[in-house]
Amino acid sequence: MLSGLSFSTIALLMVAGVLLDLWWGEVRRWHPLVGFGNWSIVLERCLNQGGMRFARGMLAWMLAVLPLTALAALLVWALAVPLAQAVAHTLMLYFCLGMRSLRDHNLPIADALAHNDLANARRLTSYIVSRDTTSASEIELTKASAESLLENGNDAVFGTLFWFIVAGGPGAVLFRMANTLDAMWGYRTPRFLQFGCSAARIDDALNYIPARLTALSYVLLAPGLQGKRRAWQCWRAQAPAWDSPNAGPVMSSGAGALGVELGGAAIYHGEVEYRPRLGQGPAAVGADINRAWRLVARTTVLWLAVACTAAALMEYAHA
Fold first, then answer.
1. Which residues contact 199 (CB under 8 A, 6 or more apart)?
2. Taking the domains of the chain in order of start, what are their residue ranges?
């Protein structure tokens, strides 16, 4: 492992990081990712002007990500005591995870829809997606929330856990910062088309393997053999139609596992965008948000169980 940790230690720290996230949730003040986002805004305002936008965007990415990743690695190295190193790795993972945040932002939408409170559901949904929710219907709000849960389950949980396995706390930090910059700069608008191109491509590369492991997990956890077959077929047939090489597999397999239809038209930046269909089955309704959350939660348990089982087997093999 690049982190220098044994796999058994990594597995235990993964469990600790997830439990901390579920217990404490996001730090309300002085969250490191919020500070990183503010620093990234300053860099973008300073560098996203004039010519050579692609090169400026690459420079901004390096100035935003590389110093903080190096600082995280240096901190772990400087803490020579193993227990202190373990605490540092765990806290880095905790700050990078967003599982409880997914739950806390999406389940209230399902609750508002259950009480036919469209106005509140639209307001809550607007906090988590960039599409226009001003006049969105229940089906459109459910699609937005369920798609966010499925895709961000990969970004905020599974991709972070994958890079934690590869490189410990610094690996999780690197991935989450790269993913944050893609979310901030990776738009195909005149302002970001060239400047954010490198951020989008780097995130695609870092997310390539985690996204496919996430999609496979959604397939495995689909209910029954028919559900698994449907999730697999949706992945293979629908993912290529999506522009994002990683969101396509994750959301198509997830929608297939839920047995609902997602995707379709949505309003972004004042214009209707016709996106490919996701999944198979009836149109999603409010209760499907809860089902999407449970799929993400079960996938997290699966990943932790696989990591702990693999660690136990490796320990047994070396005993």
1. 57, 61, 178, 181, 182, 184, 185, 186
2. 7-318
